Amino acid sequence: MGDPETAHREEMPASEQKSVKCSIRKKKSLRARYAYGVIFLLTNIIAWLFRDYGEKILPMLPYSKACGAEEEECYHTMGVLRVSLGCFIFFFLMFLSTCYTKKLNEVRNAWHSGWWAMKLVMLLISFVIPFFIPTDYVQIYGELARVGAGVFLILQLISVIEFITWWNNYWMSDDPKKSSCSFGLFMSTIFFIASVGGIVVMYVLYASKTSCTLNIFFITWTAILLIVMMVISLHSKVNRGLLSSGIMASYIVFLCWTAIRSEPASEKCSPQKQETGHGGWGTIVGFVIALCAIVMATFSTGIDSQTFQFRKDEVQLQEDDIPYSYGFFHLVFSLGAMYFAMLFISWNLGSLTRKWCIDVGWASTWVKIVNEWFAATIYLWKLIFPVLKQPKVMNHEEFMEEVDKV
Questions:
Q1: Under 8 Å CB-to-CB from 355, ≥6 apart: which residues?
Q2: What one-character-per-residue DSSP string does 324-342 give?
Q3: pLDDT in tens, 239-271
Q4: Inter-residue contact 139 to 350 (CB < 8 Å)
Q5: Using CA atoms, how far apart are residues 324 and 102, in angstroms rounded to an integer?
Q6: Side-chain half-sphere of 118: how many Cα atoms within 13 Å?
Q7: Do residues 80 and 47 lie in contact, with contact meaning Cβ atoms separated by under 8 Å?
Q8: What CA dihedral angle connects 283, 286, 288 and 290, to 10 degrees?
Q9: Where is the chain membrane-spanning (predicted)?
């Protein structure tokens, strides 16, 4: 006996059969995203194990000359970079094999959404190869990873700002009859209260002493950016409302807080100065949250390919079009592999990171602060640019003055 579902499908008209096949392929494609997200999460966990517990793991693995006589070149910083390189190789190969995929009936769509046994073999090979690469070449990858991680941060910032803009347009519609405007005003108030509250709390916790000049500078400059964004958003020529600037203010306050939290534990104004050794439950919970945040940031940026299209024309999607850009998705994950490597080693190729810690050190602090300033700059430019590119409209008197000058 045949499959009833298959028999029923064969009885359908050709157009309906095509529609059903496209629907099935699209669902497989959407589910595949989560499989790649799980792979990325497991890679992060493996990198952490090699960093913190590599001395115990490596004796159980086959010996490799690239690891050195005592295998110390395959754990701590070098272990993280090797695992990151393996993850990068896998997702970059997926990028090369899926970029420019357009239709669901292409072979590359089937490769992206299926063939998991073959991809598992490719993944294992990608992870094994870096452990046979000499340390000098892994160091070169570490330098390149800094650049790749920076590119990832820029893509993430643009994605976040575009989401904030979309949310503002949705809740703060120009239609006065739309009831969502009241909710938008309420949310903008909440976000600004949270931002101001965050500034005050940071002053109390991290800048209570006059000797904490750097923290005072970071927090004060963040407060200035908050005020500037609010003023420009409310300017009559911009008139973008308070919701988007309120969300953005909360975001840069959060970036400032994470930057201060990344200061080394040895510093007198560091909030981590009381933590030693492995840390308590707070350290472990913070580590898990940070790990999940890395994966979520990579995943959300990877599926947001429309934000980075050069042409913003409204294009009607066809039924057999892929639901998201596979090439961009895998490219973001390959850059994400570089990004998590930098977080695990605190952007410093020559230092050791404490166990159960992510992104702690002066390099990490300055990366986050620069990231905050860059985010505010991009957002302010998005507010000002539409005003600058508008043609100047002269009234009759101005027009007559121009004519008299001629």
A1: 52, 277, 278, 279
A2: S-HHHHHHHHHHHHHHHHH
A3: 666 778 888 888 899 999 989 988 886 666 766
A4: no
A5: 9
A6: 8
A7: yes
A8: -130
A9: 34-51, 80-101, 113-133, 145-171, 183-208, 214-234, 241-260, 280-303, 324-345
